[in-house]
């Protein structure tokens, strides 16, 4: 990347860092004004002023927070009771914290004309330098707190002209350790390739290398990104000065081409929720956890984790199964089966009754022929048993018919396709749980190349 592009991206980065904070709230943020470095010596060295101001800014933007002392808290508490700032205090949750996020601004300012009357009551950081000889250069750094109305840091050191221009950490780091009210250390992070973006706790701190940056004591999340390489993320534990780490990113492999065939064909194919087409289909798979989802009406949806596939596999043959019963359908089918059994047993019982009635009718027919003196009485009983036998036979036939019908419904229910009229596509955000699942149905979104902002940040 040429120098012009790097400068343009650098100014874009500065603009983003200034505008990301949004509306200023004095109870959540601490306004910091970065002023100028005033040359108090030979005018031939005026050119150094702007460079020192820019380098001071690059250090300040990496400060994670500003602590609030008791005097400042008392000032903010009184401010919260005024009508002008009452709504801002409510927006901040009716709380004044012990740490405020820096809201940084850079403008021409040399400390002349203090105190100021800005309603954000900034903390002004500015400095001066004087080149006596190349081996004797004096540097002064000041911090004026407009909340308390006094100078809270007055740091002076002696250095060389070379260090003034090329080794700003030799005087900036001792100044910030003197100024900040919490333990802070230095860290150097280098990367390969050299144009990788370096993030600490999701804040951009450098490109390629971050030399002697200020970082609070403790554990921090380090992330390195570069297009065409795998993202690197790890936790670092900073317990002292001169922490050093070098990270070499691994290139992402070329995507593999996989031919997908299904039986039956014409199944919808989704890769991490994105519709790719219908089978048979050739798909491109990048590295990382990904899920392939196959959907066809009348068949079970199939989800496959690509990490379970063999690296040498070029063709994927899948057979989509027919749906199994849902719980409701299973209960309905079993209900039909129970009814069929009950009706069958009832029908068998009624069949026995019909046989007994038929037997009694036959006996009365025989007695009717033999006992002529009781003809009328026997004839009446014969007719009654005849009607009962016919009725019992009809009822028995009906019961068996209903039993047969319930059996048919039972088999039909097991042959139904659940959800044939419903939307078979995976819902937005569909993802099977990755832990504790026994089938290969899990997945996370795969790694894809991203467009990254690359700003020139020098320390």
From TrEMBL:
Keywords: Membrane, Transmembrane, Transmembrane helix
A UniProt-annotated Pfam family: PEGA
TM regions (residue ranges): 384-405
Ranges where the PEGA domain occurs: 185-252, 258-303
InterPro entries: PEGA
Entry keyword annotation includes Ion transport: no
Record protein name field: PEGA domain-containing protein
Organism: marine sediment metagenome
């Amino acid at each position: 990347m040429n120098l012009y592009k790097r400068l343009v991206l650098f100014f874009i980065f500065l603009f983003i860092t200034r505008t990301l904070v949004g509306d200023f709230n004095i109870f959540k943020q601490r306004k910091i004004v970065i002023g100028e470095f005033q040359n108090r010596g030979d005018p031939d060295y005026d050119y150094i002023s702007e460079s020192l101001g820019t380098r001071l800014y690059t250090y300040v933007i990496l400060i994670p927070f500003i602590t609030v002392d008791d005097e400042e808290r008392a000032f903010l508490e009184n401010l919260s009771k005024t009508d002008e700032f009452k709504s801002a205090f409510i927006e901040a949750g009716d709380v004044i914290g012990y740490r405020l996020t820096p809201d940084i601004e850079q403008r021409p300012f040399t400390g002349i004309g203090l105190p100021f009357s800005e309603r954000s009551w900034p903390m002004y950081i500015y400095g001066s330098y004087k080149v006596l000889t190349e081996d004797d250069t004096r540097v002064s750094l000041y911090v004026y707190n407009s909340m308390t109305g006094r100078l809270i840091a007055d740091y002076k050191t002696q250095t060389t002209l070379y260090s003034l221009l090329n080794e700003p950490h030799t005087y900036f780091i001792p100044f910030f350790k003197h100024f900040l009210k919490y333990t802070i250390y230095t860290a150097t992070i280098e990367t390969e390739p050299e144009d990788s973006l370096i993030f600490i706790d999701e804040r951009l701190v450098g490109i390629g290398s971050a030399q002697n940056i200020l970082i609070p004591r403790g554990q921090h999340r380090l992330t390195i990104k570069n297009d065409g390489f795998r993202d690197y993320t790890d936790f670092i534990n900073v317990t002292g000065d001169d922490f050093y780490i070098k990270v070499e990113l691994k290139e992402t492999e070329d995507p593999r081409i996989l031919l997908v065939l299904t039986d039956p064909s014409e199944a919808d194919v989704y890769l991490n929720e994105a519709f790719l087409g219908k089978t048979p289909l050739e798909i491109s798979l990048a590295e990382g956890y990904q899920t392939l989802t196959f959907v066809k009406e009348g068949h079970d949806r199939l989800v496959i984790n690509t990490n379970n596939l063999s690296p040498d596999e070029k063709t994927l043959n899948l057979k989509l199964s027919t749906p199994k019963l849902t719980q409701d359908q299973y209960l309905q089918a079993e209900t039909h089966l129970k009814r069929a059994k009950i009706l069958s047993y009832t029908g068998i019982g009624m069949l026995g009754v019909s046989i007994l009635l038929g037997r009694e009718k036959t006996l009365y027919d025989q007695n009717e022929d033999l006992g002529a003196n009781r003809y009328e009485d026997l004839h009446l009983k014969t007719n009654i048993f005849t009607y009962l036998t016919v009725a019992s036979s009809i009822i028995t036939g009906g019961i068996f018919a209903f039993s047969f019908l319930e059996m048919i419904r039972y088999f039909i229910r097991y042959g139904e396709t659940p959800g044939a009229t419903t939307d078979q596509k995976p819902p937005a955000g569909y993802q099977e749980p990755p832990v504790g699942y026994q089938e290969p149905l899990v997945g996370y979104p795969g790694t894809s190349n991203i467009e990254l902002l690359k700003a020139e940040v020098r320390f």
